Amino acid sequence: MLSAGRSASTYRIVSYFEFEHLPPKLQAASKPCHDLAHEMIEQLPDGPELTAGLRKLLEAKDCFVRAALDKP
User: pTM, whole model, 2 decimals?
Assistant: First the structure.
């Protein structure tokens, strides 16, 4: 849960880190990125660097989830 007073861009991007709707093997790849995103939001102020960092983390999360699709 985000604390009140965050920017609209922070609220928007953090929603893309949700993982509960994914199958278990994809959740395992996605959850660490969700947790890190929330940790960074707790520790850092809103601003362009936080947004950029979250966007890059989101890109990495998407890659990890796609890689997990190939996992037997």
Answer: 0.90
